[in-house]
Amino acid sequence: MSSYFSSLYVHIPFCMKKCRYCSFYSVKWSEEAEQVFIKSILREMELCSELPHLFETIYVGGGTPSSMSPKTLERLLNSLLTNFRFARELEFSIEINPATVDLEKINIMRDFGINRISIGVQSFNDEELRFLGRLHSSKSAIDTIELVMRSGFENISIDLMYAIPFQTVESWMNSLRMATSLKISHVSIYELTLEENTLLFKDIYSGKVSLPHEKDIVQMYLSGTEFLQSKELIKYEISNFAKKGFECRHNNNYWQRKPYLGIGPSAHSFNGKERFHNPSDLLKYSAILKYNSLPHILDYRVDEKESLKERLFLGLRTKDGVVLDSECLLNLFRAFEEENLLKIVGKRVFLTDKGMIISNELFAEALLHIENCPVCRQE
Ligand code: SF4
User: Fold this and answer.
1) Does the Cβ of 122 fall within 6 Å of ligand 1?
2) pTM of the shown model
3) What is the pLDDT of residues 285-300, one digit of tens each?
4) pLDDT of residue 305
5) Does the CB atom of residue 24 touch ligand 1 within 6 A?
6) First vs last Cα of the chain: how many Å apart?
7) Is residue 370 within 8 Å of residue 308, measured between CB atoms?
8) pLDDT at 221
C-alpha cells in the first residue's frame, strides 16, 4: 500500500432492532457484544496507525453509533484521536439515531471534536416510521434535531427516504417541508431500494405490500429536488443537498476516489490500487485481531478499466460531473445528450435532472461499453 489514506470510516455494528428495509451489517446491541467490539477495534486502530495516512475526514457510521454506552463511546473517540494523524481542518462526522441518543452522548461527541452530526430520521410521518420498523417517532426526531442544535452543532444532516410503500407525494413533501422549517444545513434523500435478506424484500415478493407506482416515485424525486433547491439547499450529488459550505467532505472524497481506510466489522477500504473489506461478522473480525493481524479481505485490484468505470460511476453522480479523455465514450454520451439525459461541455460530462432519474440505466450502458470496447480499455 503506497497511497496515503485521506479519510477514515468507522463501522459501529450495533442496532437495537433491525429496520425492515436495511441490509447493512449489524447485530443486536448487548453489553457483551459491545465489549468484544471495543476491545477489537482499539487493537485494529493501533495496527492501522502504522499505515500511511493523514485524515481530512472521519465518519463514524453503522449500524447505530449512538447505541454505544457513553463510556464505550468515549473510549472509541479517545483512541481515534490518539492513534491517528489529522489534517488541520478535520471534518469529523457521526451518525445518530433519535431512539438511542441523549444529551450526555451528544456532549461527549462535541467534547471530542465531532463537528458534523448525521441523523437517521427517514420520515416525519409516524405511520411511515412504524412501517419501516424505526424505533423513534416524528416528535422524537424533531426533539433530537433541536437538542443537537442547542448543543452547538451547526453542521447537521438528516436522511429522508422516499418510495416507501403507502407513501404519497404529499406526505413525502410534508417531510421535506418539516426538514427545511427546522433549518437543517444538509439533507440526503434516498429512494427505498429492495435489498435481499430484508423483511421488506419478503413482504414485497409475497405480495403483502407493494412499492409506490413508478410515476409517483419519479414525481417524488423531481418535486423533492425542486423544493430543496428553492430553499437554497444545493444539489451537489444525486441524493445530497447542502447549504453552501456544508457539503459532506467525506463523501466528496469517496466520489473523487481518494484513498480511505475502513475499520470495524464489514468496513470497506480503498488504497488507490485495491479495494478490500473487513469480515461482516463481529466474531470472525475479533478472532483475526486477537492474533494482531489486520482483518483485510481483498475484493479486487483496480486496473485501468476498473479505474475508468469507477471514475465514471462516481463522478457522474456529482454536480461537477466527470472529465473524460475517451473520444469513444464521449461519442456514446452524445447520443444521451440528444435525449437531454446529460450535458457535455468540452470533455466534462454532467447528468441532467432527467438523467439522474435513470442514472442506473445510463451507468449500466456506459459500463457495458467500457467492458467490451478495446479502445476505452487503453485510455
Ligand atoms: S437503518 Fe440504521 S438503525 Fe435501521 S437497522 Fe439499518 S443500520 Fe440499524
Assistant:
1) no
2) 0.95
3) 999 999 999 999 999 9
4) 87
5) yes
6) 24
7) yes
8) 95
